[in-house]
Every structure is written in C-alpha cells, then in structure tokens.
Amino acid sequence: MSVKVLGGIKVLDFSRVFAGPAATQVLGDMGADILKIEPPGGDEARYYGMTRERLEKFGGTSPSFLALNRNKRSMEIDLRHEDGKAIARKLAAGVDVVVHNYRPGVMERLGLGYEALAEHNPRLIYAEFSAYGRQGPLSHVGANDLALQAHSGLISITGEPGRSPVRCGSAIVDLHGSLALVAGILGAIIHRGQTGRGQRVEASLMLSAAHLMSYFYTEYWMDGTMHQPMGTANHLSVPNQAFPAADGEVVIIASTDEMWQRFAHAMGPETLDIPEFSHVFARRQNRVTLVEAVSAITRTKTCAQIIDILGKAKVVVAKINTIGEAADNPQLVAANGRIDLQVGEHSVGSVASPFQLEAVDMNSATTPPALGHHTDDILAEFGFSRDEIDSFRQSGAFGKAKATMDA
Amino acid sequence: MSVKVLGGIKVLDFSRVFAGPAATQVLGDMGADILKIEPPGGDEARYYGMTRERLEKFGGTSPSFLALNRNKRSMEIDLRHEDGKAIARKLAAGVDVVVHNYRPGVMERLGLGYEALAEHNPRLIYAEFSAYGRQGPLSHVGANDLALQAHSGLISITGEPGRSPVRCGSAIVDLHGSLALVAGILGAIIHRGQTGRGQRVEASLMLSAAHLMSYFYTEYWMDGTMHQPMGTANHLSVPNQAFPAADGEVVIIASTDEMWQRFAHAMGPETLDIPEFSHVFARRQNRVTLVEAVSAITRTKTCAQIIDILGKAKVVVAKINTIGEAADNPQLVAANGRIDLQVGEHSVGSVASPFQLEAVDMNSATTPPALGHHTDDILAEFGFSRDEIDSFRQSGAFGKAKATMDA
Questions:
Q1: Are B43 and B142 within one domain?
Q2: For residue A291, is it within any domain?
C-alpha cells in the first residue's frame, strides 16, 4: 500500500461544524496530519443532538462530530488569549496548509491572515471557507447550510407542487462545499509542486450551492425558465419519480423511448404499451394518466418484485430506503464505504471519503479525538519546551475547558 | 496568473450526462485538455429539456449540456466500430487520465479496461464513476441521481411531516459525485508525482450519496436513531426553518441560547424573550408555540426588513429565493461564480467551479463544443495522417451523426 498520498503534509485546521471538518477529514484519510485547533469547550458540533443517554454511552461525542472528525489530532487553544495567538502563529509558520471558516476579517485581527502568514511561510496554502465569499455585498453576512439552500433557490424547487417548499433533509451544501475545499487544496498542492509557492484557496457555501444548482441557473439565463417543485418527479422526463409498491415505495426512471418500451413490456404491455405513452413528449403530456396506469401495477407487487423485474429489463429502479436500510445495505461495505471507529467500548460506523485510490489505503482511521488530547504532543513537536507548555496552561492559553450543551 | 494548475494534462473523457462531465469541466477550468469522446449522435445530455424554441435559438445545445461542458473539445467516435475502438486505444496510450461512467465490464469488452491500458501506459490515471461501485451485490445495477436519492435514505428525510417524501430538486448526488471524482483524480496526480505511476480511481453515486448522508448514518449506527422529514425544519435546533414574511419566506437559524437571545431582542422581546423559549431544550419542546410566536412577527414585515434587522443582530437569515433571484443575485458575480459563454449570437451564463485558486485563473472558458467539432484536429495531434482520418470517416468509425430527441 506504499506511501499515503498526503504523507508529510501538515494541516492546521481552525474550522468548525460541518464543511471545514468534513474537508480536513478527507485530507486526513489521504494521510495528511490534521491538527484541529478547537476553542475552549471545543468545536460546537461536539454537542449537536446530544442526549443524556448518548453522553453516558459515547462520552460526549455527537453523531456529526464522530462522522466528520476521524484521522485528526485535537488541540484546545484560546485565540482570544495573547499566548494562544502566539502559539497559533508559530504553528502556522511550520505547516503546509491552514484551513479556517471564520467570517472575513477575523483571522486578520488575530494576526493569522494570509498575507501575514505567507510572509514567513511562502509555501503556505491558505484555505478559506466562507458563507458568501470574501468579496461583494454579502461577504459579511453569516450563513449556514439551510441559509444557502434558501438563498440558492434549491428550496424553491424542492417539495410538493402547490405546497410550501421544504429543505433537502441533509446538509448537502456543507458537504458539497467540503469537497470543493478538498479539490482546491489538492490543486494548490499540485501548483506548489510546479512553482514552489503556496496560495490562497477559497470555497464558500454560496459557490457550493450555485454549483449544485448550475444547470437550473443556465436554463434561467438562457430564456428565463424557472422550474417548480414536483414532489419526487422532475421536468426532464416521465416516468422519473416514486411509485407505490405493496410494501413501500420505489423510484422508476425510464426517460428515453427505448427505456420506456423495455419498462412497458416488463411491467404490463396491455395497459402501458399504448400510443399515448410511446413518445417522450406524449409521456410528458399524459403524465397523470401514465402515473395512474403504472401505479395500478406497482401497487400489486412488493418492492423486491419490482426491483427484480426491472433490474432484468435494465430499467433504473431503487427502493426509497429508510436511513437504517440504507446504512446497513451490504453494498456500502462491499464498496469500502464504511469505516468503523472505536469509541470507548463501542464500535461506531462512519462513512468513508467518497472516492477510492486503488494504490493507497484511504480507509484506515483513528477515532475522533477527545478535546485537547494532543495539545502537549503537538506543541512539543513544534519546538515548545515542557516549561513553556506548562506556563501556557497556567496563563490560560488553552482556556478553561468546560463543555456546553448549547447547540 | 502564470501556469494553469493542470496545464499539459490530457484527459480522455468517455463520460456522459452529469457526474462525469461536471468533473471534467472542473479539470478543464484548471487547465487540463479535455478530449470528450461522444457516441454517434452525442452525449444524450445535449438534448435534455430541449424545445423547438431553444433548438432554434441556441443551436441544439441544452441547458445542462451548456452548464457542464465548457473547456472541452469534442470527438465523435463509434466505439462499437472496430476502427473506433482502435482509435480510442491509441488515444488512451497517450493521455494522462481516462474518465468513464460505463457499467462495469463495458470498457473491458471494448479493450479499454484499466489493466489493458496501464500495460502500455503505466502513468495512466484511470477514473471510473459507477452507480454502486465496481464490487458487491449491486455493482451491476444501473442507477441515476434519483435512484441514489432514494437508495441512500435522503428522500426519506426530505418532505413534510406525515406526507409522502420528495426528491431534493437538483441532481445533488451527481454533482457531489463529480467533485469526489475530481478530488480522487487530483490525489492520483499528486501520487503519480511521488511514485511515477498512475492508478485506478473510483467514485460512485452510492459513495457520493452516503457521504451526503454521513452524519445520519453514524447516528443510526450509534443507537438506531432514524430521523423523519420535518419540512424546512430539522431535528438539531429551534428555530432553524422557514418563516412567512409579508412578501415571501425567509429561513431563520438561531440554534444556541445566545443566538436566540439576540434574535428575541431584535424581533420582539415582549413575546419572545420568555422562559419557555430561553433554553435550547425548552425551544425544542415548545416548537409549535415558538414558531407561531415568531411567525406572528415575521408576517408583519417584508423579507428585506427581516434580513436587515437580523443581519444587524448577527442572526443567520436568508430569503427563500426563486431560481431567478438566486441566479441574478449580484453576489454570485462578485464571488467569481459566473462564467459567460458565447453560444452563437447569445451570451449564456454558466456557474464557475466551486473553488477559486488565487494564483491562477479558473474562470476563462471556451464554449461547450459542437458534437465532433475537434475530431480531426485531435486525431492529427495523436499522429493520425489525413488519409487515415478520411478512411476512418468513410468506414463509419465516427458514426453517422444524427440528432435524437429521446431524452
């Protein structure tokens, strides 16, 4: 399995909550040394969705923190404290990559802005993840995943026709943004190999959301078209939506006329293989009748039966799984998609990075760290003496750890 | 603006529709030379959502094709034809990266499998994008974005409580998968710099969707928790959802007690700054009353007024924009998020790659190519003579171009 792709790359990670931590987890999976700087009390995501039962069983580590923080080391540093700032600046002088998601101006005020750091460390790659970008009228506006689902227009096309729209259930803008940040950092590493110099890398919730919406924006820019929510259906083709089965729901996609022929023959040629449904335009026009005709058949069969029949006919079909059915589907493990972490006495699954490199192991992992667990080790590695570390602790540079449950 | 990050990198791109083309567009924005191999008639996405009006105005290029195919050159090759296969193999011997999204086994049958190509080109990076991965019980099952929204459990948490769930309105699994593929390819380029050897890179709709669901899976694996759709709300905090304004809807997020205090003081301390709402647990318990109390206030104000008040109070807020409002918001241009393309006599916007590298220009673009426009040029660059090219054309190696409207 030879070298890790990012072996030897040190990442100083000031980011919190989802997008930044998800990005540095991928870099950690690729072998980078992730030094997670947490404020006193820790990344607030440590406490998201915690209950008394989970606190007792899993030692205060939330599902989202566990999901996004393997392969990291944790330091607790109070950046409002002068010694804390000095420590952070010294670390930044000796790493390859800095990642942060503070609002524009915050890092500069801490003496940790790109220009200040690059002066002493011209090979530094400085990755900033913001809400709306560093420049422009909204650059100082705060946001989160839901805010960008709203701002981007994604919510406006998600929901049932004629009813209020809904959010996409997961933090997709955050997670998509995390991969954007990863791609930018990897690009900057390649560029540094060519030029010997680092650079600033930017990603944002807004660019991430806009990328997810890209073909809707282009269609609007072409001729003003704005699509509306269509439940599980979409505007491109029919059938391309959910249908009821005897024991659940399945989605069926047969966009082209050829796929529709295969589908109709496999499911019920008597009622489906008729001229009203044979052409793509006709199917769009006769959507309601078609959905009724298909539903009349699917209702009489189980999900497994429908998947079997349509799988053989090479028509795209899938069950609408619950989270449990999805998480426990054996295909996830077969595709190297699950990494198990030891949390106290429990083994807890986490989802692998969404790509695999055949010549390197992306799936070995250390468990998400306890808050501040590696503070002393890391400081020693960066040349601080035992006495200095003790004196920082006394001066409050690491803060006075106290857990909060405010999230 | 110096060198492009991927200057000199040649990518042979067999992928079609969304995820693969979106990935190679990002590589093209970074300076790679993308050779898009299209089957006779072209990538079917060229015809998605086309109408007679668009055909006339934009010369047969669909919104999604325009959105995801800038910075590429197009070749039309019939891979079912023996000469077509031979051409593809010769090209593959001289490129840095091959990208495809055929079902497992198809490229092998064409003589274009990884092992066969790597034998002659050990530096080759071979990027495969599949539905469920190359191995395991579902590896031969076809899928698309909606199928993985269903399979992954994402649909099960998207929608209104107590009603049938809905799809997330955009092809988020495809687009997230595109960045996974980009990150994998960039990682493999870095690794090749260290080892001199290419490797196989894998990404899939399933790993992409699982990554988007990662913290839901981990929560389920911890203690069996499965969340349900909550409209625009979520399970982590209150308020964290849409509220009605006099002229539209806004989302408001005030998760922590401190944010709630700022929110309550800014919007209406009389009815909001009360003990029943002051603590995070109390707000979750009194969700219905709280949402009513907040709505009573937001209904009396416009979106702009609410955004102004809460912006000043540093509470996260955003308008639920239409696609047009989102696409035309000046912040997108300010953050370098829009790239204009010349299509015939029209200028059409497209969304930039979702990250920016300060030292290189990511936003210069060539317009998505007409089908087969560069076939002859590329073949000449790879050493084919004029006579050979003519004879390929006569033998049908490029197919007999005919547009279809089947999508």
A1: yes
A2: yes
Give the residue numbers spanning the domain of A198.
Answer: 10-213+330-395
- CA B313, B318, B321 angle in degrees (round to 5)? 160
Nearest chain A Cα distance for residue B35, angstroms: 20
Q: CB neighbours (10 Å) of residue A61?
A: 27
Measure CB to CB from residue A330 to each of B136, B155, B257 and give the nearest one. Answer: B136
Closest-CA residue of B relative to A240 is B146
Instruction: Tell how strand A10-13 and strand A33-38 pair up.
Output: parallel
Q: Could you read off the pLDDT of A232-283 as tens digits, one per residue?
A: 999 888 999 999 999 999 999 998 899 999 999 999 999 999 999 999 889 9
How many separate domains does chain B show? 2
Judged by phi (left if over 0) then psi (alpha if -120 to 50, else beta), residue A109 lies in: alpha
> Quick check: ipTM above 0.95?
yes
Query: What are the helix (H) ranges across B166-278?
Result: 172-195, 205-212, 214-223, 257-267, 269-272, 275-278
Q: What pLDDT score does A100 carry?
A: 98
**Do A265 and A208 belong together in one domain?**
no
A18 exposure class (CB count in 10 Å sphere: 0-12, 13-18, 19+): buried
What values do phi and psi take at A341, rounded to 5?
A: -120, 140
Decide if B175 touches A, using CB distance below 8 A: yes
Q: Do B34 and B13 meet the contact criterion of CB atoms below 8 Å apart?
A: yes
Contact flag B176-A179 (C-beta cutoff 8 Å): yes
Residue A383 falls inside a structural domain: yes
